[in-house]
Amino acid sequence: MLKRGVRLAVVLGLLATGAACSGGEGSGDGGKVQLTLLSHYGSDPAKGGLDKMIAQWNQENPDVQVKSEVVKFDDLLTTLTVRQTGGRGADIVSAYGLWGGQLQKANVLAKVPDDLAKSIKSSYSPAALGAVTTGDTLLGYPTELNTYVLFYNKKILAAAGVTKPPATWDELQDVARKVVKRDAKGNIQVEGLSLIQDGDNKSVHPFLSLLDAAGGSFLGPDGTAQFDDPQGKAALKLEADLAGVKASNTSVSPTKQFRSGGVAMAIQAGWWVGSLKTQMAAKYASDVGVAPIPGPTAGSKGSLAYGFFMGVNERSKHADEAWKFLTWLNEHKADSGVTGMGRYLAGMGLIPPRTSDLATLRKSLDDPNLVPIYDAASYAMPEPNQPGAYEAKTALHNAIMTVLADGKSPDEALAQAAKAVKPQ
């Protein structure tokens, strides 16, 4: 569900002052505790599903009531920090894992109780935990989890004589070159492989997925750059080669043109399944295939996992009640032994982060395209979220774009990006 970036630079100064703010908005009224939950779930099915669970809690717990507050995703971090600075922070926050380091550094998030942290760490997938852990510190309950996979148009590949999705980088390049189509003037009519997504830093997640497939890493535990190693150089050379033969072009929008047959393959996050089903209707089942992102050799594969979490505001006056609600929200059972949160997330086409939910729901998937998306949760590289990770992501994106759009040397671009990464 993460599609667009945020105005991070606007809020960095606010984060620096966040630790000085007063408590959240929770307040008692006639002996009742009123908790507030701030999220970006403002439209269905996300809004309706969360509201339904909150209503169930409120009915069963009359002395602890929860009120949902919603802002657009682009405004979420700014709203969170501005309210925190003004002493009006929500008791419970839903946030993007990439922000975790900044929020933790500014003392916005309360420490997860030890017994609860132990339970969460034993119950959630490595990808989900990695996406919401900064250093050794768990930020809260993992919620949304997305992994990257290779989407492909089955009909376009079949028309070019390709009977199965590529399983190595050589096959990926070969297929991309076979299926690309250009008009008499050289303009792309069908892009072979898209290496970008919507939003800011649009080139980074596809690159990191290929980097993971090669066995590389983005950042070290201390925040230093690790993407300028042989694996990183090989991954960016692959992208450069595809751009060089015009099988990939950053001017083509995959989210707009894949559905109409203008893109043959694209490295995208799993949430895209839900969008494509809506946009393509009956053509989705006949045209869309999903496969793991291949690595350099047969059997190698990679992905990137990013996630959201729900945690408690360090300044909340009702932290105990807030953790009690979050525990119920993420652990109460719905049906077939699956938690309510797991059913809610799966209903939106997202990966349930709890391992037991994932195992149960995977057995009953009615869409084969979801299988590689679910499977990637077991091997995907978690998106780093320590302080400075966003700035490192921006530096890497700028470097990748000089290669894809301007033809710069991959090795030189990565070296330049690595120098721009400043551990915090």
CATH topology value of the largest domain? D-Maltodextrin-Binding Protein, domain 2
Q: How many strands, which pairing sense, and closed or not: the largest β-sheet?
A: 11 strands, mixed
Strand content: 15-25%
CATH-level-2 architecture of the largest domain: 3-Layer(aba) Sandwich
Structural class: alpha+beta
Q: What general outline do the C-alpha atoms trace?
A: globular
Mean pLDDT: 89
End-to-end Cα distance: 28 Å
* Total beta strand runs: 17
- CA-atom Rg in angstroms: 22 Å
Organism: Kribbella turkmenica
Keywords: Signal
Signal peptide: 1-22
Protein name: ABC transporter substrate-binding protein
Q: What this model shows, in words?
A:
Residues 1-22 form the signal peptide. This is ABC transporter substrate-binding protein. Keywords: Signal. InterPro entries: Bact_solute-bd_prot1, SBP. The strands form 4 sheets. Strands 1, 2, 3, 4, 7, 8, 9, 10, 11, 14 and 17 form an 11-stranded mixed beta sheet that branches. The protein has 424 residues and is α+β, with helices and mostly antiparallel strands. The longest helix has 18 residues, at 389-406. It starts with 7 loop residues before the first helix and ends with a helix. Residues 3-28 have low confidence and may be disordered. The protein has 19 helices and 17 strands. The protein folds into 2 domains: 8-146 and 305-382, D-Maltodextrin-Binding Protein, domain 2, CATH 3.40.190; 148-304 and 385-420, D-Maltodextrin-Binding Protein, domain 2.
